[in-house]
Specification:
Length: about 290
């Protein structure tokens, strides 16, 4: 009898422990997996609001990442980000990767901004192909520009230089070289743009202005405002740009022919004629 009582007590103790530890009711439901996956909570929110406007029109507001991104862009940026195959109408002060495509096709430094230099070169391009020289990208200009880029040409038969234009270009370069030499000995001054002192781009900008053509302020901007030509095609009076290993422009001077240039080099050295000391150069012509 004592042994039986002990076994009965032990059995009841084990049964009591198991029954109290096992989850029941709503507690058990927490451990069950749903048969169907739930809807992702991170889905784009769409808010529809019905408003009684006039005859009871409904207003639907949709908030998605694409809509929010487009809303932050100006009209000029939206045009500049339109795909090239769509041949968007681009105009002055537009900006974006599509503007860079146009600039590369026009042999300009691609900064992605449709500035005055891009307008000027585009007008020349349009006139050379018998198109209306508006300085804006239209459908006809897109067709001609993409064709020209594919066949690695730029100006058409209508852009052949006449004898009078050739004489004008020669006279301009003569003025550039004459003024460049007249400023020999002018001291170097950082940020200088006058006869009291020049830095490199201040010097080239001053010389070109006296000769009759205005250039942007910095060497990099001047590079973007010129037509890029090969070293063999360069003539005295053209601009010569010095480039670092990353391709950036850090110095500019006036080509004097025979591997020489006029330039304002650095503090302590006045304007002088010198040899071009590196092969990492590019030439530009206005």
């Amino acid at each position: 009898m004592p042994v039986t009582a002990r076994r009965t007590t032990l059995t009841r103790a084990v049964s009591s422990t198991v029954s109290t530890d096992r989850p029941t009711g709503r507690t058990l439901a927490k451990h069950r997996r749903t048969s169907k996956p739930g809807t992702p909570r991170a889905a784009a929110a769409v808010l529809s609001v019905g408003l009684a406007v006039g005859g009871g029109a409904a207003l639907s507001l949709s908030t998605t990442p694409a809509t929010a991104s487009a809303a932050t862009m100006t009209a000029a940026q939206q045009r500049g980000h339109t795909s090239v195959p769509s041949r968007p109408l681009l105009r002055f002060r537009d900006s974006g990767p599509t503007v860079k495509y146009v600039q590369r096709a026009l042999h300009l430094g691609p900064d992605g901004y449709f500035g005055s230099s891009t307008v000027r070169v585009l007008k020349k391009f349009q006139a050379s192909w018998g198109l209306k020289a508006t300085g804006y990208m239209d459908k006809k200009t897109w067709g001609r520009l993409t064709w020209a880029a594919k066949h690695k040409v730029l100006y058409g038969k209508y852009g052949t230089t006449s004898s009078s234009a050739t004489k004008g270009t020669t006279a301009f370069r003569t003025k550039v070289l004459r003024e460049a030499a007249a400023l020999k000995g002018t001291p170097y001054r950082y940020g200088g743009t006058s006869r009291s002192g020049f830095d490199c781009s201040g010097y080239t900008g001053f010389v070109y202005k006296v000769a009759g053509h205005k250039l942007p302020r910095t060497a990099r901007q001047q590079y973007g405002a010129t037509k890029h030509i090969s070293r063999s095609a360069a003539k005295p009076g053209d601009l010569v740009f010095f480039r670092n290993s990353g391709g950036g422009v850090y110095h500019v001077g006036i080509y004097a022919g025979g591997n020489t240039l006029w330039h304002a080099s650095k503090p302590g050295r006045p304007v002088a004629k010198a040899k071009i000391w590196t092969s990492s150069v590019a030439f530009g012509r206005v």
